[in-house]
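seq as requested:
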Amino acid sequence: KTCNQIVVNPSFDDGSTSYWYRSSTSVDTTVWQNDDATNYAMTFKYNGSSSTSRSYLKQRLDHRCFVDGQEFVLSAKFQLLNAADPTETLSCDPSEDSSSSADLCPVLYFEGELCDGDNFNVRLENQQQVPWDTTDFNVFQYDIFVDANIASCKKLQLEVGRYVHVDRILVVDDIMITQKTTFAPTANPTFSPTKPLTTGPTPKPAITTYAPTTSVTIKCPPPSEYTPVDAGSAIFSIAGDDSLCTITKVILKDGAVEKVLPMARSYDFNDWEVS
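struct tokens:
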């Protein structure tokens, strides 16, 4: 992952929703594959009595990528299906702005906490005001300008699925935040796995492996580096404050990387969680 494309698992190409977390148990997600197995997408359905702001999928973003004056393009692809008959595609009204309306088109939310100024949670509506196409994916785009307050936030989060009407299924693909300007933070967290590894920008989180008579400590690597981890059992310490540590399994085929599968992560003194 680099700051050129901030969202992790944007296209669900490993067949999972890794790095996307449900805000409530009333959310159902599946990964859908097209007939010729060339593309994956995620379906989102809210199992409640009405649309709500409290049920959605979220992903924690690397706040160090958001530098004052930087510009990003937030993009995604959406479809709407009939929850009673998922073979039927539905439409929405791009001009509708009422959260309670079934005609509301999909929106994204951008949340910032632990900021020097005010915390925020803003609704981002598609800046491409074009008629909704029921025959194909619809492109969502929103330009994000990073001001000093956004750049100061220690927690930034992207949210998808708020206010999806209960009679609809939202199909999502290619959720991306890409650089519009070219400068990047001084510590660019780039990971380039080539075998099972532990990655993360944490300075010194200790990772300890226990054997019957010996113990080996493996430190999380600094940004832009990785540490290969041999197969076997291990005990990992949690990541420290303002730090992220991930464990990734890389599957090789004929000596080349075939798949990169996120396994687990820890950040900001939180316990390890399965990706």
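The two ends are 15 Å apart (CA to CA).
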